[in-house]
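User: Please fill in residues for this 316-position structure.
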């Protein structure tokens, strides 16, 4: 994928090799089939669909996304076409492109998540589920990943419902005790092949001085933060789970807007890197630009492959 031919950005994981290391964060550019197709035709190395619920949802009232000087705040509320729509797309997806398809699942209950996983298993498709344990934006539905007992129960149920490899999208954690407690739970599940770190930092509040008001309507202005705000938190989560989950992969997500942040995520241990806020603002051309910048940075540093520096973050 790189325009720098001596540099290899390919990634081998989940039993396949994908042509680069960058793809979209679920939620961005992936609700409609035509958006997914544009991603597939871009320099994204994989495609992930919008978090699906069993039934279609309109999501929260608008305005529900706001660009800010440091990134974004959103409270979308899981607007999506419903699981059947994404399953149908998965049936027709061009797996021969070499770009994996991930299906993000965000059932409103454990039963809903298991029902979607069972349907996916019945179809025997190569699409890989990324189960979202971390949506902060559905009023009355706390982020599952902050409830360790409920997460442990859910993972047991996922194992029973689905016989293939799967991943989970985690919320950010902020304390070493929580990294350790969550890792202990995740390590009980060999087919949990990857964790994606991080979802937005939930329930931030952006204030506009001129209007003396919040900037999004749902939840009186509370929403998930993305972009520059979240980079150090994302890196901490990638690095800690990289160290605590041997044999599993960590997908980095948070604050990637150039080759520099992608490099940081991989140095912290990320196998692959998702792009959210930057993709929202720039469009799918971001993938070629960021890949080119990453390749140029690797060339300057004398690295040819991502394995040359993945996880090799130095401490002082
Ligand atoms: C949303 O649709 O509210 C965003 C989903 C998420 O952050 O998990």
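Assistant: Residues filled in for all 316 positions:
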């Amino acid at each position: 994928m790189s325009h720098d031919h001596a540099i290899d950005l390919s990634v081998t994981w989940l039993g396949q090799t994908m042509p680069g290391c960058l793809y979209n964060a679920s939620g961005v550019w992936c609700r409609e089939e035509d958006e997914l197709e544009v991603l597939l035709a871009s320099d994204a190395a994989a495609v992930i669909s919008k978090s699906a619920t069993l039934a279609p949802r309109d999501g929260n009232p608008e305005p529900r996304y706001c660009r800010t000087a440091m990134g974004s705040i959103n409270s979308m509320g899981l607007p999506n076409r419903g699981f059947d729509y994404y399953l149908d797309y998965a049936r027709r997806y061009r797996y021969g492109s070499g770009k994996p398809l991930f299906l993000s699942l965000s059932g409103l209950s454990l039963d809903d998540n298991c029902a979607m996983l069972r349907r996916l298993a019945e179809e025997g498709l190569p699409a890989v589920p990324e189960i979202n344990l971390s949506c902060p934006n559905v009023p009355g539905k706390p982020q599952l990943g902050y409830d360790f007992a409920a997460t442990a129960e859910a993972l047991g149920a996922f194992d029973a419902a689905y016989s293939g490899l799967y991943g989970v999208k985690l919320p950010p954690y902020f304390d070493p005790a929580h990294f350790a407690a969550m890792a202990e739970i995740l390590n009980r599940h060999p087919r949990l092949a990857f964790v994606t770190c991080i979802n937005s930092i939930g329930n931030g509040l952006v204030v506009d001085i001129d209007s003396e008001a919040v900037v999004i309507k749902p939840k009186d202005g509370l929403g998930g933060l993305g972009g520059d705000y979240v980079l150090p938190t994302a890196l901490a989560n990638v690095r800690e789970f990289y160290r605590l989950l041997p044999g599993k992969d960590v997908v980095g997500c948070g604050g990637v807007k150039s080759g520099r942040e992608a490099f940081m995520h991989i140095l912290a241990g990320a196998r692959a890197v998702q792009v959210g806020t930057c993709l929202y603002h720039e469009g799918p051309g971001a993938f070629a630009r960021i890949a080119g910048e990453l390749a140029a940075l690797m060339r300057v540093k004398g690295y040819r492959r991502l394995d040359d520096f993945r996880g090799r973050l130095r401490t002082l």
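For context: Residues 27, 51, 76-78, 132, 134-135, 137, 199-200, 224 surround succinic acid (CB under 6 Å).
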